[in-house]
Structure formats: C-alpha cells, structure tokens
Amino acid sequence: MNGLRPDQAGWLLAGAAITLAPHTAHLPPALSAICALLLVWRGLIAHRGWRLPHRGLLMALAAGVVALVLMTFHQFFGKEPGIALLAGLLSLKLLETGSVRDGRAVVLLCFFLQLGQFFYQQNMAIAALALLGVIVAIASLLALEGSTAPPQARAREAAKLALQGMPLMLVLFVLFPRIQGPLWGLPDDAYNSVGGLSDSMAPGDLARLSESGAIAFRVSFEGDPPPPAERYWRGPVLTRFDGHTWRPDRVQDGAHPAYRPQGMAYPYVLTLEAHNRHWLLALDFPGATPGLRFTDDYQLLSPDAVQSRRRIALVSYPHTPVGRDESSLNLRAALQLPSGANPRTVELGQRLRAAAKSPDEIPPLAIAHFRASRLSYTLEPAPLGRDDVDNFLFDTRQGFCEHFAAAFVVTLRAAGVPARVVTGYQGGEPNPVDGTFVVRQSDAHAWAEVWLAGRGWIRIDPTAASAPQRIEKGLAAALPDSTHLPLMLRTDLAWLRGLRNRLDALNNSWNQWVLGYNPARQRELLSGFGFGEPDWQTLTALMSAGCALVMGGLTVWALRRRTSADAIDRSWALLCRRLAAIGLPRADWEGPLDYAARLARQRPDLAEPLNRIATDYARLRYGPAADTTQQQRFHQSIKNFRPR
Length: 644
Hints:
The protein is of the alpha+beta class. The protein is 50% helix and 11% strand. The chain has 23 helices and 17 strands. The relative contact order is 0.08. Mean pLDDT is 86; it is low at 182-190.
C-alpha cells in the first residue's frame, strides 16, 4: 500500500518532474514520453489512493526501459545512455515509493540528475533550473521528515535552507585550490553534441549553420578593433576537392608561425566556445603564442581538442605578407581538380587564362564575371545537380558564401592559378553593454585564398562582389528578407537587440567569472587582496578560516534566532510568575500537567482554566507544529488569566 501522505508524494513528483524536464531535449522522444506517462500514473495513484503496481509489473517495465536505451544507444556506458537510463529508473522508482526510505532514494536520484544537466551545458539558465530543482528536492526531504505544511511555507523553508548554505558555497568556490580542467573524466561521448564550424565543406553546410544564433566566440580588443573588411576569423583551410566536398590537405605544424609578423598589430582576448576540434579562430595573422601550434597553411591550432570554453590572448597582424616562397608541393595541391567534374566552370577558367596577360589579371576577371552573372546571395538556394559548381554558376545562380568561394576557387584552378577555400567567421557585432565583440554561428563564412608570384597568398572574397553588405554590415543586412532568421538575429526590432545585448553581457560575465574561474583568475583575485601568489597551503588556511567564520556566524544567528516556541515559553513563564505571586510557585521538577494537577487540588476554583492552559502549552510546546490561530488563542488565555 501507499504509505506516503499526499503532500509527500506531491513534492516527490514535483521534484522528479522539474529534474527530468531539462533532460527531455537530450533524451530519446520515446523515453521522454514513457517517463511522462509514469509520472502521471504515480500522480493518479497519490490522488485517488490506488495501490502501487505489483513488483512483477515494475520489473517488466524496467526491462523495457533498459531495452529501449540499449536499442537507441547500443551500449550502457557514456553520457547519453547513462543519463537516459537514470531518467527511466527515476520514473520507475516513484512507482514503488511507498515509504519515507524510498522517498529519500528518489530525492538522491533527483540530485544526481540535476548534476547531470551540466554535462550538456553550464550556462545561467541551467544553473537556475538546477537551483530550482535543489530547492524542490530539499522541500521534499522536509516533507518526508515533518508534518503537513502548506506548499508556500514548505518552499520558503527549503529556500531559506538553501540560502543558508550559500555563504559556505561561496567561500569554497573562491578559495578551494583550483585545478586546471575537470575534476573527473567525462565519458567518450560527452562532446558528441558540440556544434559549430566543421573541418569540411559541402554546398549548404554554412547556410544551415548561419541560421543559428548561438555564440561561436567573444573578443575583447585592447584599443580600436580592425575595420569590418579585416574582420576575417581564420579557421580550417580546405585544399582537397572531390567535386562535391572540400577537405583539408595534410599540413605541417610547429611552435612558431611560418611568417614574420609586420604592420598594424591588434591585441585582443578571444573567448572561444567548445567545438571539440583542434583548430582555433584568429584574425590573420597571429604572432607566436606559447602553447599553441601554427600550420604551414596559417591555421592556429590547440595541442588538444577544444572541449571547454577557452580564453586566449593573441596579437594579430592582418597586413603580414605570407607564402611568397610557398613550396611546390603545396602549390600543386592548390591546383588539383577532379577529372571530368564541372566542365563549364573549367572552360570558363581556361577562357579567362587566355584573355589575361598575366596570372595577376585572372582573379579580377573572375570577379568581373561573377558580377556580370548577377549571382544571388541567399540562405535558401535552389537544389544543385551532380556538378555543383556548374549548376550554381550557370543555372540556378543562387547560393551562399560556400557556393561563391567554391566556384571562384575552381575557376582559378582551371585558369592555372593556385587557390584554396578558407572557412571561419566574418564580422562580429559590438555589444555596447560590455564592449565585447560577439561572433555568432550566423557569422560563419567561406572565402578564397589565391597565390600570386611575388605576392604570396592573398585573400579574395567573391561573396563581396555580389553581396558587399555581408562584409560591411553582416548577414541580416545582405539578405533580401531576414524574416526567416532566428528571432534574436532580427535587425528590425531595436528593443529585442537591446535585450539580447544585455543577456549576452550577463552571460559573458558568468562565463568569465564563474565558468572561467581557473587558477589564473583565482591568483588574480587573491592578489588584489594582498595575498600575492598564494600556494595551496595559503589557500587551505584561508579556506579553513573562511569556513570557520561562516559556520560561526550561522551558529550565532541560530542561537539568537527567536521562534514561535520562544513566545510560547515566555507566555508560560508569565503565568508561573503570576501564580508564584499569590503563593503558588512551580517546583523545578514539575512539568506543566503535574503543576496544574497539584494546583487543582489546592485551589479547585482555578482547576478548569489551569488544566486547559497547561494542556494547550504541552501540546504547543512538545507536540506537532500548530497553526497561528492556536498559538494566538493560547497567548490570549494567559493574558486574560488573573488569579487571586
């Protein structure tokens, strides 16, 4: 039988629902539906007083959940199957929860799954949901251990307990010795869902990515930022082409760049979101930076995959000449074209080569042809056939930046000019709230890089020929109609942009000072308080002292805190003083009921009111929590009692 009170079952159900709700975005839809049905079933049991299901039925349901997880993920180990299995087991556990002990197990499962939310994201919204789940879980524990109370009072009590733990949590967060990287290893599939720019490119890839308003990285410039035409954030360089997809070629890397930085310098701090690959994003061309690698096609690499938010200080020199002495091997790779593919574009390149007096004239001729063709820049290009470049350049004439870059590079290769595709991001929007530049996935871009004798590799963006607004003012300004963009990317709603900027600034502060609170930030903070370069012994001493101060303060507060029981005792003490004043003192050993019984024998005229008052005091002082009306009645009865 169900041995829980309705309020206890209700709090457990609320805790489970709040805990499971954020996970539904990552759980298989079938499992989410099963969990919802199981919670509804348990709610009906609590509401209508039905019996809990038979253990055999529960075992069959558990086997079904396990089978569903196994069929979906083909294993039990890893983040995704592990969370899915725990979600199903939490829902099933509620159906056998008929005692306080089982209820405690449900609360512990809720705590664990709330922690599991941070395997996916660590933003403020997830932290707020986790805090809400913690408060509901604490309220569930209070309901399991105490008597019935109104939901509002129970929630306030739980929030108060959580608030009391905040000072201790803050001391531990600030002073606990920070360790670079996570305290535990995440499963192998922990980063499978990380999105963003890919290290390959096919028609439509960047168009789909540009429909996302997610932040790719943030930049804080020291001084004036570069003009819009120089805000090209270099990512993967794609040289190999199979007629449909562009991929990187084999590269060599080293601790120093294969160029000598010169010209205008732009120092900045880049905060890069996780993308689970080794390449970084940087303006052309960053100077040597300790701990980073530089490839011979001028990519900036991290020694390990970027699986968490990364903060990097860089200095870039956009006007640095590169590749003047490029190797013949790399130049041959930048001329390769698949045999028989895109014949019309190959013919165009050959005509341009014949019309040009030197290779330097071929890129401008190709750009002029693109302009004369009136190519249309759109996020929704028409479907392409087998020869993607031919279909775009001569038939549909509609495409996104990857179509323009691919067509331009194929044209130049057919004309005998080495060229390759560079992908990354272009632009960025300044946030007036905190002064940072925000670069989103919608700023994903592809352009061409062309090698010319005596000049080396130079950037040419064929998209700018047909959509110059894309470079100067961003994606939304370049599209004929931005209504299909995500709501937060709309440029025609000023109030929405203001709200987005404030939220972005708040998220950036959260990322920098909470998620980005690493050993360097800890040293920086403590050095501001005069602790210099604290070692772990100093941190341990500070942490111990801080915890002692917090615990001491909470103890003093608890001892000085007045409760309803204090008021009841004061009223009872007043009664005892009045009786002592007429020669009827209470002995130290006498309890309220014994005291009233003795006085009833000595003063029968006081027996009835004394017995009533003593019984009320014993019930209020030692029995279950009473409501305010009962307490007020008790205080009023003593106030009116005037013995003689």
